[in-house]
Automatic annotation (TrEMBL):
It comes from the Eukaryota. GO terms for molecular function: RNA binding. PROSITE patterns: RRM. It comes from Pygocentrus nattereri. InterPro entries: ESRP, Nucleotide-bd_a/b_plait_sf, RBD_domain_sf, RNaseH-like_sf, RNaseH_sf, RRM_dom. Keywords: mRNA processing, mRNA splicing, Nucleus, Repeat, RNA-binding. The gene is ESRP2. This is RRM domain-containing protein.
Amino acid sequence: MASHSDTLVVFFGATAGANGGKLGSDEREIILLVWQIVDLHEKKVGKIQQRLIKPDTIELTDQCKEETGLSVEELCKAEPLDTVLQQFQQAVSAEVKALGRSSYTLCVDGPLLIRQAIHPEASKKNLVLPECFYSFVDLKREFHKCCPNAGPVKDLTLPSMCASVIIKQPLCLFPDHKFSLFETVKYKFESGACSKTEAVDSETVIRARGLPWQSSDQDIARFFKGLNIAKGGVALCLNTQGRRNGEALVRFINSEHRDMALERHKHHMGSRYIEVYKATGEEFLKIAGGTSNEVAQFLSKENQVIIRMRGLPFTATQQDVLGFLGPESPVTDGTEGLLFVKYPDGRPTGDAFVLFACEEYAQNALKKHKQILGKRYIELFRSTAAEVQQVLNRYMSTPLISTLPPPPMVPVSTRDCVRLRGLPYTAAIEDILEFMGEHTIDIKPHGVHMVLNQQGRPSGDAFIQMKSADRAFMVTQKCHKKMMKDRYVEVFQCSAEEMSFVLMGGTLNRSGLSPPPCKLPCLSPPTYAAFPAQTAMLSTEAAALYQPPLLATPRTPQPPTHSPAPTLTYYSPQPQLYMNMNMNYTAYYPRYYSIMTVIHITQYDFLYALCSNIIDLLTNLLSINLSPSTVSYFAAPPGSMAAAVAQPAAPVLPQPGALVRMQGLPYSAGVKDILSFFQGYQVTIVNITTH
């Protein structure tokens, strides 16, 4: 009903919990509505109408009992909210009609009752509110407009406003005033695009956390019902795999609505409580902002329902998608309502966004969730304009193989390698060589490296070292998407560093390259400190056990020094890789170990003399154990053992023993197998402990 400034319906309410400035913040239900009609033209007031409301959970706080004077027994006899709202509508309409008026203005003492109580509860209970609750005037704002020196709006009360004009009756506040500051509540959320160049006030943005993964922008807008969200102001956050992570950034029309949204912290969406925090405009633009003209044109059609399709075959065309959706869910403007997500080089990602003109068409499309297109099942979800921007931004900014900054002092090698992706799992080296055809002669010796998964099975990936970057480029041009058996294989040019990262345990996915744990600061190889220095000298009996022939050059025993403890180092990848094709190059390390072996040698001076040899030995052992199938990749540089023997070793703290952890042993391995493994090394095994 359109408002009429001469007729006011003064409206008041209370909840079963907090009231006043915290009304609606505790998500408690409405238990009382009071209203009175005021005829400003005739300066008459109607009868005060009061209705009790029976909540679903009949429980009153002490504050509520004190302020309202109501009891649980009284509420048990009351009517539910939907019935009371109908009574309100009928009673007000009849009384206004009796005054000869056709419309009225709903007047409240602050917006909390309408925005934080009436609309949220009606939304949860799926109630249709009368039109008057979508447009109202705030008595405090109107008073502040007339008396700006009376203080901030939030601090105004009816007694203070009366005192300001030295009157006692609120009716006389505006004898000849024409109300103009009408507040509105949006009927529905408006989707839209957001540009990265747009200015977003940080005082209008919040972050909602704990959302159900299937929630859409409309669901979030419904959670914040009563508050006005800016057009396109809901941005669902995605994780590194492009899936929703249960968070969203929401932008409101002003800071007042943002502050009221913060009061809904830990309110419920279904059975889940939602956390609400402050956020910044920069965070919102990072998620929702876009620069693509194609996306802007796609999202320029207003009042459209957006559906995201995931898992499309890479060969799917626009006509395939339209045929899959069928005539019962027509796409807006046909092929113009489809947006395929692609990588920077034009390769499809398997994602697409579709526009529908109405909710009915979108619902029909969602019924095809997990139905088959080609040989793949397709997932369909509700989406948002911000999600379209976010997905496009992520994929368009993703390099083919994401590279990490090289370690200091390590030069970046040329892109003289190629990566094969999508190999048949039955493919062997011979199949790859046949696939390469005439380019086989440009492969370096031992330059084909199959990548296996954690179970030692083919992962569908392989790396090939070419003789030059030009040759690698030619292979990508000639062999990309060429068929091998019944599958097409993708071929990308990459560098030796990128290949090394993968072979050391890194992973490649659509989001780029995830480095191996050994390249992460938090998982850097540990420093093994020497055991405390010992003062005991080599005994005659001990010296007899270890004769000089065991050493390349006998050394004179030296007293222990307090030099820094030695560390066991990890040899970096060598430029030329010679690897066994059966090795698992994606082994993750370091991992927990299933078997622990203790090597305990009590002859300190012998350990001192064999310092370099033992370090090389332990380095090799640790390399084997941390990545058991990449022995040659982590092997010590050639000649390191001989160099350690031939050259004087730096002083090292004597050690009473050394601890070696072994991982990756066969489940059938026993103590005898472990002893055989160490056969040939001049060590004494004191204890073997299994875990």
